[in-house]
Design a protein that fits this description.
The two termini are 30 Å apart. Helix 2 (55-71) runs antiparallel to helix 3 (95-116) and helix 11 crosses helix 12 (285-299). The protein has a 4-stranded antiparallel β-sheet, sandwiched between helices. Strands 5-6-7 form a 3-stranded antiparallel β-sheet. It has 2 domains: 17-252, Transposase IS200-like (Alpha-Beta Plaits, 2-Layer Sandwich); 260-334, no CATH class. The protein is an alpha+beta fold. It is 50% helix and 8% strand. Strand 2 (76-82) and strand 3 (87-92) form a beta hairpin.
């Protein structure tokens, strides 16, 4: 199992805020010094066609990530989410190793798609640069950003239920104990089919979930959870501190999306901070349109959401801005 970095000596908790925060700083500093820093790997989704078209494609990618993590023990996977046409990963390691890790992953994906007869161009599935998480707060925000990524574009999921990533295991010890089977339970032929290769030299005790290797086998939850004070702190990050994700998205060249509830919270904060009113209903007509521009340009809000939440005519907004209906339709793959 991957959870061997601190061997439980820095388990979340502590008697005071300062105790907890100092423990988080120690986890962050020691891991960065030992392994080579924290990096957000995000393949651009804007120009990449859909890659993962069916459940089996996602399952393959889950196991491929596990295999690459096993091949590169110096690369520590902190969390990840597989989206329809791109990938988010928080990794700890030296950049040259991370690029090699990704090159192996892409090679495996290309071979799988070719065998499946999927004519998918992977030119856009690239790791052109790594975004560093140079501070403890930056790392916290980027872990939360990754773990809530699919939730924002798929109304059928919470930040804990999406199955194609490590998000569903954060601060959920029961989930990490669950196993449908283990690699050692399979026959030799079943193992080769499972990993899509003849090489089956992976640990017999590795847990299998949903037809893939579980993230529990290789994701360093001890580090990922260790940089949050406790489970409540993590939950607050992924559900409440939503404005911090705007800056991360700008760094990544990513498109950030907000649910109606999240955007509504942003609107009320802007109203109080910039217009000195308690509600958008108290804004003047000019201020409402000014607010609409902020939501459009700064928060990537589509015209439908702005119309609903600010109570402005949709046809007027469509004239003000290029309609974002096309973005809404592609949310499931480009969030």
């Amino acid at each position: 199992m991957a959870m061997d970095f601190y061997q439980g000596s820095y388990a979340p908790g502590g008697r005071s805020f300062n105790d907890q925060e100092n423990r988080c700083k120690q986890v962050f500093q020691e891991a960065a010094a030992r392994y080579g820093g924290f990096w957000h790997l995000c393949t651009p989704g804007e120009d990449q066609p859909l890659i993962f078209r069916k459940r089996e494609d996602y399952v393959f990618m889950m196991t491929a990530i596990a295999i690459c993590a096993y091949a590169f023990p110096s690369v520590k996977v902190i969390t990840f989410e597989i989206m329809g046409n791109h990938l988010h990963m928080m990794l700890c390691g030296h950049p040259d190793e991370l690029f090699s890790f990704f090159a192996m992953l892409k090679k495996k994906l290309r071979r799988y798609l070719a065998i499946q007869g999927e004519g998918v161009c992977l030119d856009g599935f690239a790791c052109k640069r790594l975004i560093p998480a140079e501070t403890l707060e930056s790392l916290r925000n980027q872990i939360a950003y990754i773990n809530r990524n699919n939730y924002l574009v798929d109304p059928d999921h919470t930040p804990f239920s999406y199955p194609y990533g490590a998000n569903g295991y954060y601060f959920l010890p029961a989930a990490r104990r669950f196993a449908e089977g283990r690699f050692g339970d399979l026959t030799i032929l079943e193992r080769r089919s499972f990993v899509h290769a003849r090489d089956i030299g992976y640990p017999d005790d590795w847990i299998i979930i949903g037809g893939a290797f579980s993230p529990v086998n290789y994701v360093h939850f001890d580090i990922g959870e260790g940089v949050f004070r406790n489970a409540r702190h993590y939950f607050h990050k992924i559900t409440r501190e939503i404005e911090s994700y705007k800056e991360i998205a700008a760094q990544l060249g990513d498109a950030v999306f907000y649910t109606d509830d999240e955007l509504n919270a942003v609107i009320y904060r802007i109203c109080k901070r910039e217009y000195d009113v308690e509600s958008p209903m108290l804004l003047t007509a000019n201020s409402k349109f000014d607010l609409a521009r902020k939501l459009h340009y700064d928060y990537n809000a589509d015209n439908g959401k702005i119309a609903r939440l600010v109570k402005l005519p949709r046809n007027v907004l469509d004239q003000m801005f290029l309609s974002k209906d096309s973005i809404q339709k592609s949310n499931r793959v480009s969030g």
